[in-house]
## 1
Amino acid sequence: MRLLEGPEVGAGAESYADHVRRLGGVPDLGPGLIGTLQRSGLAGRGGAAFPTAVKWQAVAERSRGQAVVVVNGAEGEPRSQKDRLLMSARPHLVLDGAFIAARVLRARRVIVYIGERHQSARAAMLRAVAERPDPERGLVTFSAAPARYVAGAEAAAIHFLNEGVATPTTVPPYPFERGVGGAPTLVQNVETLAHVASLARPGGAASTLLLTLAGGVATAGVLEVEAGVTIGEAMRRAGGVTESPRAVLVGGYFGSWVEPERAWLLAIDHESLRRHGLGLGCGVIGLLPASRCPVCETAGIMRYLASESSAQCGPCFFGLRALADACTRISEGSSDGHDLQRLQRWAAEVAGRGSCRHPDGAVMFLASSLDVFAREFAHHTAHNLRRSA
Amino acid sequence: MSTELKLVVDRIKCDGRGLCAELLPELIRLDDWGYPILAPGPIPEHLRALAQRAVEDCPVLAIALRRAERKQ
Ligand SMILES: Cc1cc2nc3c(=O)[nH]c(=O)nc-3n(C[C@H](O)[C@H](O)[C@H](O)COP(=O)(O)O)c2cc1C
Ligand code: SF4
Ligand code: SF4
């Protein structure tokens, strides 16, 4: 089943009545749902691709009827649109997933955590909850995620819900151990929950992925594809490229640049991307037009990621800032000639040394830039040296 | 099975004064901003006592010893 099948997506939210007419209500579930999730191989769509069944099992074991389900619709990645679109067009699919989680995990509360700028998504979800009967409706509260990149990280969401501060905290304790109000908590991306809703229905399969296509493509925006479709095929379905690309960003700002010829052949699913050392992240696939300067583009994204550090961990706060500054010097032609080596060394040193994976994502992105744009970085650096000579 | 131990740093607590690197340069060096970089792998037997000292002497109690297996 496709998540976006049914009425025209642009027509707004599907009503509860239409949703139930099309798909039936939330099915009766035995305790076997976690097994179903496991067999389906469903992995989180918020970025980390963590196996959903493992998370559910960890919360189920500890719940004792006290668990909390956090529906993560923060969607902090600037280029991503799929979570917003899903909440706006198919809010009941997301809610079905959340209520299934609540039932299977014997949860006491469902908290819908939506990015404060995603107003139409929030409006659609609020209306959708109001359409649900009790006791479902009574489980739900809403919370607006601050418009910061890290606000969508699991530990930051919990920190915000507990104390009003959307910065990550030290783990352990993990959310499944001690989350909202100290209770075992499941934080799950909205797309992942929609796939749960589809899987739980007879004959259901989580066989599609939502992508956001960005950059020089005819129809930029959200595209649903079957797992295993190549990036080239996804681009064809979106009307093709409008400008010959220099590189393809697979996985958004925590992802990697890939040479176009290689990218077109990549199959879009977590397993095969992992085999290539890549990840789908939150599903953003961005094209960098050949007319743009890759070094400037890299520097811009690094500045953004540095500014989005929550400034709690030294290696992330100082490291990302230093990396962004060095990229900027190279791009602007003011480097002393050692910045390229510094970038390599710092990127390796910063990885794995934050409380959350923000710096890891940033340096993975940077490492792919230094690799795929080696020619351009070398050229800029040589230019810098000529200027300083 | 003997328990292998490793050092972990609470990156939010650590304020980068570098005392730990002075005590245990064999396993801890500092990055360009003064924050510790730990050598990978378990702590060798002969450095355990020093590692314990580093844990106790960190002014903000940011370092701990953990068993060397990982969860989730
Ligand atoms: C810096 C950072 C930002 C994140 N932002 C989001 C986000 O906006 N939305 C989201 O669903 N997950 C985000 N995540 C991933 C969450 O931590 C978490 O893995 C996810 O919500 C779990 O749901 P899933 O398993 O269904 O993907 C972010 C992670 C990091 C490290
Ligand atoms: S790693 Fe960076 S973003 Fe994550 S908690 Fe530490 S300072 Fe904040
Ligand atoms: S002694 Fe403690 S605060 Fe100082 S650098 Fe080491 S871990 Fe960080």
## 2
Amino acid sequence: MERIPILKMGRFLLVTIQVDMHDQLALALQDDLTSQIARTGARGVLIDISSLEIVDSFIGRVLANIASMSRILDAETVVVGMQPAVAITLVELGLSLPGVRTALNVERGMELLHASLRAAELEEYDGGGEEDDAFGGHDGLS
Amino acid sequence: MAQTAGSTVAEILGADPQALLDSWLQAQLSAPTARTDLITESELRQQSGEFLNLLRNAARGGSLDVQAPEWSQVRELLARVSRGRALQGFSPSETATFVLSLKQPLFARLRSGLAGDPERLMDAVWSATTLLDGLALYTTELFQQSREDVIYRQQQELLELSTPVVKLWEGVVAVPLIGTLDSARTQVVMENLLQRIVETGASMAIIDITGVPTVDTLVAQHLIKTVAAARLMGAECIISGIRPQIAQTIVHLGVELHGASTKATLADAIAMALRVTGWKVVRAEKR
Amino acid sequence: MTVSRSDVRPIRTEAEVVAARQAVRSWAVEMKFSLIDQTKLVTAASELARNALNYGGGGQMRMEILERSPRQGLRLTFEDQGPGIADVEQALRDGFTTGSGMGLGLGGSRRLVDEFEIHSAPGEGTRVTVVKWR
Ligand SMILES: Nc1ncnc2c1ncn2[C@@H]1O[C@H](COP(=O)(O)OP(=O)(O)OP(=O)(O)O)[C@@H](O)[C@H]1O
Ligand SMILES: [Mg+2]
């Protein structure tokens, strides 16, 4: 059976959905992602849906499931690149995916994943980490 | 009956078409509604000739129901004519006259052709009247529609003009809303805003409603949907300038602006947006 | 009002659900629907086709272009000979599901189109008709 490829990038997994998925394919992705998180110990999942032309209640539910399952496995999920027409339609349909983190594009999504990983690690090791400027914090004026 | 009447009309239209065209043109040009200032005689002759041809072909099919498929070419021509005239500045009655003025020459022909058969004459006149009235009505409807389209387009343009989405800063867009919001306008705002978020890569969007006197349920719901859609795309919204009265409405309506931050003034919203996107605004030292 | 074009697509497999929504997309593009309206229509089609497959045991989608001069509409009719729905009112309510879904398909697709009609009775299958005008 065909599968959506999952890329490993450092401590994150990256998925780009480019085809109009039938339901089984979406469910297979959900399975593959959760088992890969468990196997690799990945701390974040980035799902790029910028080429998806629709998200219906089924795909929406799969995205929400991936987010909550990966959270249980200690990985953060970010969905990036949703098109305006898709977002408007999804909201009208009645799905606003409250449990899913989002970002405008892959770059922003990566920043988000890095930031939350750092925050989590700071908490885990209780301090120590250097102050950083991954968000383009332009200070130095004060 | 319609069958015979249809073929009678086709027959009458088919005999010496040139003469019929001439007498019809004569009727059009001498009518008080003639607009020789807006359309040239040769253009009118061309339109009229084409119409007669198509009309004859369609009537040969036997059916005089102008909605039937064999009348599609006639309908298309009339659509073209009435759309053109709507844009050229003809009035509705001047436009309908194009079709209605054919009655006189057509009836004259029917009368002389069927003088010996009053019953057939009655039938033929009746069907010709119904037919031309139907076509004239159709013309008027299309004329009206063309006008409405123009108005609609202008309204849309106005809508877009009246809701400019501006890029305030790297990563921050804002839309100041002014005046009464209806549901159509809110929809346009919503679509424009989301589009601009993609174009500019903004992660913060400010919707300023300082200039909005009242908000009803529908508009409040549109605002909430906009906030939710923006969040799905990865951008956060701040609604600023909520008057006390609107705050009351929102609470009374029981709607929650979940996901949206609210700020009293546009300035507060800008400060917040800059802070969240990682900027710091500092007053330069006085010299 | 006349129908100027029509076609019927089978909905017996998940692949056919995908094919059905792609057919709706291509007709909607040809009819020059705005991107947002295309997206709404395709999403509604996806919901109703999936329902016909999952609950109705498969069926078909009829596509029709309506001419109501000067407007054009796209009408989609989803039909199956499945068990039907006893309480349509309840099925339309957001959140109601007898499966593992979120119960958003019917209520949600009604919000995405201009006209929505459902005929269903136990033992008689289900027919849902939607229209979007442009
Ligand atoms: N074609 C059908 N035949 C029989 N029952 C149906 C059909 N379509 C819908 N139903 C019933 O109506 C209920 C609601 O349908 P709806 O599409 O709104 O939600 P869902 O399919 O359960 O979940 P979702 O669509 O959100 O994934 C279904 O659970 C099912 O019981
Ligand atoms: Mg469903």
